[in-house]
């Protein structure tokens, strides 16, 4: 049984139910990494509790205005 996943990016309504074929990526729980992801999502770390599980759908990788993904597996700013 797979938990339903929702995209945490503002304005994006993807979820594993709505878009079963989309890939979802988990935001890391490690503080510094998490900050970078949230910045890239235009969200503030204070919007979420430190331990909440957040997912981002594949739409936000390699596209978009403030979301960049580098080939070596990390975000570039
Ligand atoms: Zn999304």
TrEMBL record:
Pfam families: THAP. Residues 1-77 form the THAP-type domain. SUPFAM superfamilies: Glucocorticoid receptor-like (DNA-binding domain) (SSF57716). InterPro entries: THAP_Znf, THAP_Znf_sf. GO terms for molecular function: DNA binding; zinc ion binding. Keywords: DNA-binding, Metal-binding, Zinc, Zinc-finger. It comes from the Eukaryota. This is Unkown protein. It comes from Riptortus pedestris (Bean bug). The lineage of its organism: Eukaryota, Metazoa, Ecdysozoa, Arthropoda, Hexapoda.
